Amino acid sequence: MLLTLLLFLAETTGLVNANENYVGAQTCIACHQQQGEAWRNSDHFKSMQPAQQEFVLGDFSNVTFSFGRRTSRFFARDGKYFIETLDAEGKQTTFQVRYTFGYEPLQQYLLQTGGGRLQAFDVAWDSRPASQGGQRWFQLQDENVTDPEHPFFWSGYYQNWNSRCAACHTTDFNKHYDSQTNQFQSTWSDINVACESCHGPGKAHTEHIRNHTFSPAHTGLQELGKQLTFHLVDGDPIARAAETMQQPSLALETCGACHSRRADLQAAVSSAPFHQQFQLEGITEPNYFSDGQIQDEVFVLGSFLQSKMAEAGVTCTNCHDPHTGQTKLPGAQICNTCHAPAVFAQPQHTNGHAQANCLDCHMPQRVYMGVDARRDHRFHRPGIKHPNSSAPCKVCHVDESDDWLHQALTAWPKRDGASADTLGDWAALNQRLAEFDSTAINDALTFLNRNALPSLEKAALIEKMVVIAPERTTDSITSLASNQDPVARQSAARAAAGLPLTLSYPILLKLSQDPVKSVRAVVAGTILTVAPEWFIKAPPLTALLEEYQQVLRGTQDNPGANLGLAHIAQFQQDIPAAINAYEQALRIDPQYIPGLLSYADFLRRLGNEDQARHQLELALRYGKELGAVQFAYGLLKIREQAYAAALPFLAKAASTKDALPRYAFVYAVALWQQQSRQQAVEVLASAATRWPGDYDLLQTWAKYAYQLRDVTSLQQAVKAFGQHYPDDKTYRQLKKIVK
To answer: How far apart (Å, rounded) are the C-alpha atoms in residues 736 and 739?
Structure first.
């Protein structure tokens, strides 16, 4: 087996210009045979492979698969694999499969389309057994993506391997993207996630071995991060570590580099700390539910960092074998190594669920990519379902109502000595703040003062609070800016955008000199949004802008990076550079909605109304379901004085899933001005239910109801206004009228 493995590795490494400091997995395995055999059976080994018979699982016996607008044919010829399908122009074209992507429970295939691009084809092979519904071709998304004009069509940016997948599926990956030609010459040292992805370049290590200079202090390999050892002690039902975590954990520095939803700040370097090369995304909707459970694909780290286990110093390899990737014991047995079964397997904990499984309740599964069930890693207690959340209990009790769930959890036996779980309170506050409920501010401030929360959960509350009550959130933001966790300081920089400029400036100036790159990048992006003139106000901010430009230039294969460069060029009044950056963003992704909307606004300010209209028409064509698009097009019609024509677009904007209170406010004002005054009041009343604490909605609803002499609606509006803004001058005047 070892000889076969070494021969295979010899054929699949060194095929490209690899970094000379990387020696390749075959060199490592020559000495570390046991680890090599374990890795050979891991998902890391199978993350990507050449399209050879040994690795291709799909049926390529000249079969077809039809879905939506597309029929694809899968066939093999002369030992090679091919897929005939629609290309970007809508023509039936044959593409050679270059690599497999993943293994189980599904396998995708990478097709080369020109310009050095590898694209992940979106018809995948279900590799589960036929008895589980597998052994079939299936479409990963809905039928809309089979249209070549859809942004997620397989040949587009969002399915591009070089930009979006490769860094975490290969070892020592370098994009080598040329922004002038929009082409890649990507390189790697190992075709999959191999030894040096985690241990770092192996050249120095092998030289130590060869020169007999190896020692535990001089291994030649990178530090993987700290792992504590946990022990059960008599009388304590939960294992504890004898020491505390004094350095970043392996979960963050090594595993988290790929097992996270994050933005790149540079080309990934295995030896660099996480926050110096990535920005971790917060636990915001729609990536997470309102109680912090996973909703979209977030790849573990953001979920895990919310947990008490992370706080205690538990890390990935406490549960998972680092070479196989599997848990060290099957199922819930791994939980029993730290959570005494004598306590946690008792009825007081399981409520009589004889076959209760820790994982099903505390790590509920959610299915992604059609068949891939992934577990939540927050390890929280099951909670009552919130408006945009998901209760683990409903995984099994599918047909039960929320009332039943509430009663069942209320009646659940309480274990003596169990610590209070603040998740329910946090989730409820998080949801109220997401609805712009200003009455949640006092409760949130009290909650933050009384509870020690993970940085991600604290940040989620404060970033919503500042939108509703900026001045009252200033102290909380200032406190975040001094937190030792870079995640908290990033949040402070984002939240500062909601403060008055006189309050945000000292916070952002301080954070501009933060030692962590991810924090400085958020600061730069925030300043660019709220007050770009600050970049020439102080030397630290001038240096910050230069660094931020380097970050964006290093990720110019991303349309968002080019949009940032366009904004900087506008600030610097470099019109040609701004146009070039906008065009580059839209060359990478012609359907990039933020780019289309921003470019339209830029062109309008230049006086080019026709081109601005064209960009908005493209945005409407590609993103008609988005509130921002409908709103922008409605404003265009208002500028053209086509007021009646604007109303349908404003109406759609106000009713979309991603709508903001402002959309409903502008729609109501437009209705009022078009003499549809009763409808305007009704729109405001409805919007005030969706966003109960928005000041503009409440004030305008009350004023319009008063002018319309709608007594019932006026009473409702004034009552709602007073619940949120009892000291407001306008409310007090209206309150006298209602009396």
So the answer is: 5
- Tell me which of 562 and 8 has the higher pLDDT: 562
Compute, in degrees rounded to 10, the torsion defined by CA atoms 603, 609, 614, 616. 70
- Per-residue pLDDT of 552-564, as tens digits, reads 999 999 999 999 9
Q: What is the mean pLDDT of residues 8-37?
A: 76
Q: Any residues with CB less than 8 A from the CB of 330 and at least 6 apart, and which?
A: none
First to last CA, the chain: 87
Contact 21, 196 (CB under 8 A): no
What 3-state class would DSSP assign to 135? coil
Contacts of 148 (CB under 8 A, 6+ apart): 86, 87, 88, 89, 90, 155
Strands (E), 458-553: none
Q: Helices 2-12 and 33-40, interaxial angle, to 10°?
A: 70
Class of domain 640-739: mainly alpha
Structure tokens at 60: 């390529």
Of 608, 610, 633, give the one whose Cα is nearest residue 620: 633
pLDDT of residue 403: 80
> pLDDT confidence of 47, banded at 50, 70, 90?
very high
Determine the Cα–Cα distance for residues 204 and 208; give it in Å rounded to an integer: 6
Give the span between the Cα atoms of 380 and 291, in whole angstroms.
10
DSSP three-state, residue 27: helix
Place of tokens 């802008």: 545
380 vs 386, residue with greater confidence: 380
The two tokens of residue 323 are 């070479």
Which DSSP category does 181 fall into? T
What 3-state class would DSSP assign to 295? coil
Residue 183, pLDDT above cutoff 50: yes
Nearest to 166 by CA among 98, 104, 224: 98
Task: Give the whole-angstrom CA distance, residue 705 versus residue 182.
Answer: 56
Asked if pLDDT for residue 383 goes beyond 70, the answer is: no
pLDDT at 655: 97
How far, rounded to the nearest angstrom, does the alpha carbon of residue 535 sit from its chain's CA centroid? Answer: 29
> Where does residue 6 fall: left (phi above 0), alpha (psi -120 to 50 degrees), or beta otherwise?
alpha
Q: Taking each helix axis from N to C terminus, what angle separates 539-553 and 517-530, rounded to the nearest 10 degrees?
A: 100
Q: Where are the domains of the chain?
A: 2-195, 230-406, 640-739
Q: Nearest 5°: CA angle at 439, between 437 and 443?
A: 115
3-state secondary structure of 81: strand
- Radius of gyration over alpha carbons of the chain, in Å? 28
Q: Which pLDDT band, with edges at 50, 70 and 90, does 349 fall under? A: confident
d(CA 422, CA 291): 11
Question: 655 phi and psi, to 5 degrees?
Answer: -105, 0
Number of H helices, E strands in the chain: 35, 17
